[in-house]
Amino acid sequence: MSERKTPLGIYWLQIASISTMWVFVLGISYWIVHLLLLSQRLNDVPGASVAISIVAIPVFLTGAGVLTYVFFGLRRWAPPAAGEGGEGGERISGRTGARISIVALGLLLAASASAGDLAVPDNPLRGRQLFESKGCHQCHGLAGGGPGIGPDLGAGHYGGSFLDLGAALWNHVPGMSASFEQTETGWPELSEQEATDLLAFLYFIDYLGRPGVARAGKRLFLERRCSECHVVGEVGRGELGPDLSKLEQFASPLFIAQAIWNHGPSMFQTMREARMSPPNFQSGDLADLSAFIRQQSRVGAVQRVLVAPGNPNRGRELFAAKGCAICHGALARGGDGGPDLESSDVLRSAESIAASMWNHASAMDAKRKQLGLSWPSLTTEELADLVAFLYFLPFNDATGDHRRGAAVFKARSCHECHGAASGSAPELADLLTTAETQSAAAFVAAMWSHAPVMRETILAEGRAWPELSGQELRDLLAFLESEAAAEATER
C-alpha cells in the first residue's frame, strides 16, 4: 500500500499548534520559576505554593510532549483501500487531523486568556458617548447642569462592582420607564459591550476626585515640612530640593505624584540625613498641593499640560512588569508581603490612590534595597495606567453562590416566567439561554433590554417590581450558569 503525505495546509496547521503550545508551556514555566526566585528573595513563599509550582511545570511539559508525539503521528495518514484492513485502518484521516489541530490551537489560546474577568475598556470615558446617544443625559446630569429629572450622577460616588451598578439600574426601571413614556422616548436597548462601556463610565466619574483648594495646599506645604527643602514662588526655603514652580503648568495631581515617586529614594536619603520623617498624604492632599503650586508659582496665563485617563488594561501589565505583583500577588489579591488590593479601600480618586502608593514607598524603598532591586520609575502615563488598574479592581465581581441564586430565582418568582414549563412568551424564556448568561455584562444587557416587557407583565399582574441587590445578581448568575438551573427550568 502506498503512503500518502499530509496535505500542506494541515501540516502547517499542526506545526503552528505545536509551536504555540511550546511557547505557552515554556513561557509559563519560566514565569513560575521567575516568580518563585523573586518570592524566595522576599522570604514570602508558602510551602504549598512551592509544591504546586514544582508539580505544575513537569505536568505542563509532559502534556506538551504527549501532544507533540500525537501531532507528529498525524503527519502520516492513509485510509485503507477497499478490502484492506490492518495498519491503514488505524491511521487518522487528514480531515480528522485538521479538526484535532484546530481544537488544540483553540484550547491553547483560550488557556492563555484571562477567563472570568470583566473586559474593562481601554478608555473608560468611551461610555460618555453612549450616555448621550442612549438618551441618559435627557434626565441625568454629570456634576451639575443637568435637567433635574433624574439624580445627578456626578454628585455622589458610585462604588461597588459592575453588578452592583447593574442592580441599581434594574431597581430604577419602573421610574425610568415612566420618564420614557412621558417624553415618548423609546427604550434604549444595550448590547453586552455597551453595558460594559456605560457602567464603566459611570464607575469612572469619580476618578478625578474633587478639585483642589490652594489655601489648603499651602497649609499642607508648610505643615508637612515640604517648605524646608522646596520652594514654590516665594514660599519655602528651597535649600535641599528643587524648585517646584516648574510644575505649575501641570494641571493634574498625578504629575506631582509621578515627580515625588521617581525621586523617592533620594528624598528618603535626604530626609534620613535631616532626621525628618517622610510625609503621608490623605485623600485630596495631592489635589490641594497641585492647586497651591498652580496658584503660587507665577502670575499670568500658563498653558496647562493635561494627562489622559489611564488605561486599566495597560496598568495590569505594568503591575507585573514593575514588580508590584511580587508582594501583592499576580492579580493584586495579596501575598505574604503585601495586602489584597482588590478588597482593600482602594476605590478612591486617582490622586488618592497615588497618595497611598507614596505612603507605602518608604517601606518599599527599604525592601528593594534589602533585595538588591532597582526602584520602579514611572512616567506620568504609566502612573495613570497603573492607578486606573487599581481603581477598577473592585469593579470585577466575585463568583456568586448558585445555591443562594436558586433561592433568589424562586423567591423573586423568576421561575413563573422563565421556566420551560411556564408557557411564557419566547422573549422572556430566551433570558435563560447560554448566550445571555455567559458573562455579567451579557446578563445585565439582557435584563435591561427586556425590562419593558418584564415591567408590563409584572405590573399587569399587580405585583411589585422585584428589586435586586448586586449580591443577588451575582448569585443569580452563578445559578443560571449551573446545572441546577437546567433542572429547575424543566420542572
Please give a structural write-up.
With about 500 residues, the protein is an all-alpha fold. Helices cover about 55% and strands about 0% of the residues. The chain is built from 23 helices and two strands. It has helices at about 10-40, 45-75, 95-110, 125-135, 160-170, 175-180, 190-205, 215-225, 255-260, 265-275, 285-295, 310-320, 325-330, 350-360, 360-370, 380-390, 400-410, 415-420, 425-430, 440-450, 450-460, 470-480, 485-490; strands at about 230, 235. A two-stranded antiparallel sheet has the order 1-2. Strand 1 (about 230) and strand 2 form a beta hairpin. Helix 5 (about 160-170) crosses helix 22 (about 470-480) and helix 9 runs parallel beside helix 14. It is flat and about 75 Å long. The model is unreliable at about 40-50, about 75-115 and about 420-430 (pLDDT under 50).
Please give a quick description of this structure.
The protein is built from 23 helices and two strands. The chain has about 500 residues and is mainly α.
- The pLDDT mean sits at 74
Radius of gyration: 29 Å
Helix count, DSSP H or I runs of 4 or more residues: 23
**How can the largest sheet be summarized?**
2 strands, antiparallel
Order of helices and strands: HHHHHHHHEEHHHHHHHHHHHHHHH
Q: Which class of secondary structure composition applies to the elements?
A: mainly alpha
